[in-house]
Amino acid sequence: MNQKNPRRALFLFRLDLRLQDNPALNYIAENYDEVLCAFVHAPSEEGKWVAGAASQSFLHFSLQQIDQTLQSRGGNLYSVEVDSTLEHIQDLVTRHDIQGLFWNRRYEPKLIERDRQIKEHFLEKGLEVKSFNASLLWEPWEIKNQQGNPFQVFTPFWKKATSLGEPNSPQKLSKNIRFMKVKSDSLDSLQLLSRLGWDRGFYEHFHCGEEAAKKALDVFAPKGARYQSQRDLPSVEGTSRLSPHLHFGSMSVREVWHRLRKTQESTRSNKERAEIDVYLKELGWREFAHHLLFHFPMTPDRALREKFAQFPWVKNASQLRKWQKGLTGYPIVDAGMRELWATGWMHNRVRMVVASFLVKHLRISWLEGAKWFWDTLIDADLASNTMGWQWAGGCGADAAPYFRIFNPYLQGAKFDPEGDYVKRWIPELSALSKKWIHAPHEAPEEELKKAGIVLGKTYPFPMVDHKEAREAALLAFKQLGG
DNA sequence: TGAAATGTTGGGGCG
DNA sequence: ACGCCCCAACATTTC
């Protein structure tokens, strides 16, 4: 090591907001003397799908955590907002005598192209430039069917992926790494936070950063043995609630995978092992989503199944608004939409129900739903959001068949039998007995009175009739030809 | 990672 | 004792 001319690397943080199991940082630790850690925010380069408001808020606090961690280790996070990432990197390279440029990959089509240009440019300038995988268990291009094509159905995809062997183990960061401390704009100048402060409620339910993510995994891992039995009950914390951390990379998916594997090994119960497999498969759906986004880069904006370009989606702003605000008159739908607004997150079972309701009962385009989720979810992820909505809309890969229409009453009765979830998010229904909690409009006058509910005033009547809406949806989807 | 309609079966009441 | 009907429970098919 030469103290006078240290080898310096520039590391760009993206969706990998952690120090542990961060392959690019590990590479730097092995090969460089010092590293400048930067977050170069260039929203104009993300195109139409620039991060939504909720997601930006989570990003802000995650970056704050990174900065604190780096400061406690003698460095800091250099953060800046720019129009051109490439030009700004050029500045940094010159200013700080940088010899290597490293990052962990993103998989959004526009960013793949941007990063390709950056890599080409700085390789030409004689820098060492490398990108790594911090986000996925397998790279999207590693998994192919027998013809060498990408999969469009989950089950064979997952079979193939898991047949390739266990994903890599997480790697600890070398203690020898030296972080640079440089002058930086304040994080606030990136203006990631809404001035309205509507995001405050999020942080009663979720915490940002690597430490918080570690705690969340500690909470979830032992519960993995009951994942299959509990994951569909929105009133119970039976899911991992790791999605924002997996999106922003404050938790490594490899870490999650191997932790759950360990839990699996420590039990003798076949049943428990199978329950954990169901969770690992959910990580598989996340992989599948990235696979689809990579191989079908138009899907954030267009249905994968092309005939859906002709589908007569309904344009109805006032109905869309009712759905967004949780005023549909269907308690399980409204509870979900309000949980989303209040916490920036929604239980997955309920995501499927509200999505089916928008797309089937209201026949409003999946794209409207995708946009709303994009803006309100702290875990908004282009790959998962696109796949999920096209699944619900029946217009994507391995999508729900057109005739699969969730009945909100039955979904409520089945997965929230006591009505606890509905009551938590719709306080105006909290005094209603569980017998009517999912269909207040069918409750006897007397029951409503007792519960202080005046339909049409304190809680809406169903905005559409279930049976009629269902039949209209069947007809419309059937006319498209399945 | 549905729901509703339709079909089948089998036990019990009853003439 | 027997056949018939009713209907719940379960299975299948249809959307």
Class inferred from helices and paired strands: mainly alpha
Number of helices: 19
CATH architecture level-2 label of the largest domain: Orthogonal Bundle
Which fold name is given in CATH as the topology of the largest domain?
Answer: DNA Cyclobutane Dipyrimidine Photolyase, subunit A, domain 3
Estimate the strand proportion: 5-15%
Order of helices and strands: EHEHEHEHEHHHHHHHHHHHHHHH
What strand line-up does the widest sheet have?
3-2-1-4-5
Write the CATH homologous superfamily of the largest domain. Answer: DNA Cyclobutane Dipyrimidine Photolyase, subunit A, domain 3
Mean pLDDT over the full residue set: 96
Question: Explain this structure to me?
Answer:
This protein has 3 domains: 8-133, 3-Layer(aba) Sandwich (Rossmann fold); 135-170 and 210-295, Serine Threonine Protein Phosphatase 5, Tetratricopeptide repeat (Alpha Horseshoe); 306-479, DNA Cyclobutane Dipyrimidine Photolyase, subunit A, domain 3. It has helices at 23-31, 53-72, 85-96, 109-124, 154-163, 210-220, 227-230, 243-248, 253-265, 270-295, 317-325, 331-343, 348-361, 366-376, 382-392, 408-415, 420-425, 445-450, 466-479, and strands spanning 8-12, 34-41, 77-81, 100-104, 128-132. The longest helix has 26 residues, at 270-295. It is mainly alpha-helical and 482 residues long. It binds a DNA duplex (15 and 15 nucleotides) through helix 13 and helix 19.
